[in-house]
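Let us practice reading a record.
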Amino acid sequence: MVLSKYSGNSSGRNIKKLSVLIKLALCFPLIAEGQTNVQEVPQTSGGPLAPEKINFNSGFLHGSNIDISRFAEGNVTFPGIYRVTVSVNGKTKNSLKISFVQLNSDANAKPCFNQLQLNQLGIVPDEKRAKQLLLMRPDGAEQCYVLDRWIEGSTSQYNSGDFELNLQVPQLYVRHHSDDYVDPSLWESGQTAGFVDYAANLWQISQGAAKGNSNNTANLGVTAGFNVGEWRLRKRTNFNWSNQSPSSIQNNYTYAQRDITPLRSVMTVGETNSNGELFDSFSMRGVQLQTDDRMLPTEMRSYSPILRGVAETNAKITVTQRGQILYESIVPPGPFAITDVGAIGYGGDLTMTITEADGRIRQQLIPFSAPPMLLREGSSRFSLALGQLKEEQIYDHPDLFQATYHRGLMNYWTMYGGTLIGEHYKAFGLGQAFNTPIGGISFDVINARSVLANNTQRLGNSYQVNYSKYLDPTNTNITLAAYRYSSKGYYSFREMALARNTSLIKERSEADNVYINYRTQNRFTASVNQRIDDNKSLWFSGSLASYWGGKTDSRQYSISFNHSLGRFGYSITGSRSRAGNGNDENIIQLAVNIPIGGNYNQKPLFNSLYSTVSNSNQSGTTFQTNASGYQGDQGELTYGVGANVGNRANDKAVSGNIQYQSSIAQVGLSATANDFNTQFAGSLRGSAVAHKGGVTLGPSINDAPFAIIEAKGAAGARLLNGQGAKVNRFGYAIQPSLYPYRENVIQLDAKGLPDTVDVLDNEKHIFPRQGAAIPVVMNTITGTPMILTLRDSSHSYLPIGTDLMDANGKSQSVVGQGGQAFIRGWDPAQGPLLATVGEEKLKCIAKDAAPVNKAVSEDLSMVQLEVTCLRN
């Protein structure tokens, strides 16, 4: 038997009915009559006792036509939709809205489930049985069945008092992936939509005693996208302007992309970046097909970097990879962590540039490469690429073909290899990864043959060892330790192409080091985190690199001790880095974070004081302090003021910053001033989405999935975890930053809405694909709320429990005590309400509609109305 879902409105009606009946039970405890013989109650094997039957005298209830026989069966569960806590085989899973339906003559409604809910609970029904059930209705995924129809031998038990639903399912049908894994059949591609995501930054430094000289720069990063069917089109462009250099436009990429679900992979056509797990990653133009780790269960996903640093002033953070800007933002003084860089490919060092308010520039090289490539037994990953090298710095764009494959042969052994064949180039790589008692270790070797300018041939090898380990006895986490050696004759594919264009490289080498072809000889990177106890940790990272061609070795070390005591915390950090001129800079810093004000529930003007004392062998000692605070229910407004003092004259400065996250954009301003310089910066980030309902402005969405919320009449309602997004006056909002291939909960906060608006379902669950634009409709009812008093032709109240329906047969309310019913938005002039009492069909009309007209014209919050119900 197929059971359709009930609407959210029905649950409300049934709950009201239940509350009325509970009141009846409390008011008339002596109405029940009859006798109970315990010996006569039949015993059931392994199941609950059958409830004793109780008879009620309906004569005590107003209205003799009410059927109350179902209450003779004990604690009855009514049909409807209830939010319940669901447990599977004793393990609590989710809180879900479950439909309870009436089956045949059974007094208790039974829970039924659709395929979406089963997936949320980690239940995988028998494939053959599921297909049979879904074929019974074309929209089977939206239909529900009782549990034993999906899985034979399964049972359910509902505790209506605590709203707990316990399911017993054979273990064979319980998924063993992580709890957040979503079956691919539920992934959503969304609707056709276009968007523009933008991030604008202005930066000005006025220099000199008269502040006459200024350096003004502006950057606008725009990502334009269009989704149609399964395809996603994207174009990323950076516009750069400066009053001291020519303006430039940088086209980062243009591509069309779609998922290939059976292969758990994504196909990209256009400008993209090659897989860098074995060979060095490079920009290319062509076609690429590769495994997308985000489609896999969480435990099988790959590594991505987090960029950490400390800003001494209002600083501009710029992250680049191979000369392309990946990320740019302005941060206030203090430590920062960047988690949404979106690094290109699986490898390729990142350069993080910190431009302080006084003009000082610090650069940090972040090695970015894949960790030991261990895979689970039987799992695999692959990548295929066909096209040509995309390198703006050279004229030659050689054709290429690259293929890599990884296979987990055993739990502790993974083999991988690949080939890269192109014009003037051939390379083959082979590697192994092992899970050993001392950690995860991988080793690979690449043999490459290159043809350089004048047909000069080079043959060389590159060897790489990676290691990672978490040491339980000492709580030591070695995140990534890697060593790579490349012989003098080894060239990567990109290095070969650059070497064949030596004239262009020499032409620009003095202007920009990006174009100089220094090849790495040795490289070692390591990152170690040592947890001392629950609130103390020691962190170390370092990198060493030497190069062929005479470039100065690069070295960078950093060690930090962190201690937190509730809201108070401090850290001690020491670092050494070698600049391009070969000089080492040594820095030691003490940072203290002091809470200001009362507890978390209070909102003082400032709630945190962050101070640092740092000493550098190149710039001396600097003291910096910054007070910060926030306002708003979700911290929409953040701000800070600060000052710093140092050995140098221009180290004495004051600063301030403010940032506001509105419903349509994020805007930020900051300023710093000292005796010699003044700095000003401004930023604006947001998006505009074009969809079938119009154009909606919202927070920045980057290239992540997003939801287009439709909630008619709910203007001003806020999206929880929506980065400040609110429903606009047209009834739309944008929910940014969804997780692809995972369950996302969309919640609408109806607090503050007028009484004329009722949000029927303020929570939806969606499962977007990468880059998808998911339409989400939040059902609402708008109109003047009314309390109706309903009487029949004899001036008697309508019986309790009588359903009131519109002309389409849709239930609008249920009659309670004293013939009263609550209803919203009914316009008596548009038609009567319909009611059924016993065998009689009644038509209910308002005696006087003037109160309704007055309520609408004067915007009253409630209206009371006398209604007469006559035979239809």
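A brief commentary: The chain has a mean pLDDT of 81.
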